[in-house]
Design brief:
Blueprint (H helix, E strand, L loop, with lengths): L1 H6 L5 H5 L1 H5 L1 H4 L2 E7 L8 E7 L1 H9 L1 H12 L4 E8 L2 H7 L2 H7 L2
Parallel strand pairs: 2-3
Antiparallel strand pairs: 1-2
Length: 107
């Protein structure tokens, strides 16, 4: 698995495509994965940088263990150790997207 993931330019790309399936529709509408950063020479214990609508930010801090469990189930190993949350109104994100992106991400 490591050589495949090591060659992946963007470990969050598959995550974006399956985001709604991973976190559920309610949270997918109010959150957006930006990137995953890992400690040097490791694909374990990464940090998922996440944009979160301000209405959900506090709740998500309390739900972090649940989110981490869902994410690591998706990856199949302890890939993500923490979330770094930045707040952004999701209406702003949708407005900044091209129409094609809105359709793909709204499923």
């Amino acid at each position: 698995v490591k050589p495949v993931l090591k060659n992946s330019k963007n470990p969050v790309s598959g995550l974006v495509e399956r985001w709604q399936d991973i976190v559920g529709e309610e949270y997918a509408l109010l959150t957006w994965p930006l990137k995953v950063t890992y400690p040097k020479q490791s694909l374990n214990g990464g940090t998922l940088h996440l944009e979160v609508d301000p209405s959900l930010a506090l709740e998500l801090q309390h739900l972090q263990p649940v989110f981490l469990d869902k994410l690591n189930t998706y990856y199949g190993y302890q890939a993500i150790k923490s979330l770094k949350i930045s707040q952004r109104h999701m209406s702003e994100r949708l407005a900044a997207m091209k129409p094609k992106e809105r359709f793909v991400n709204a499923r």
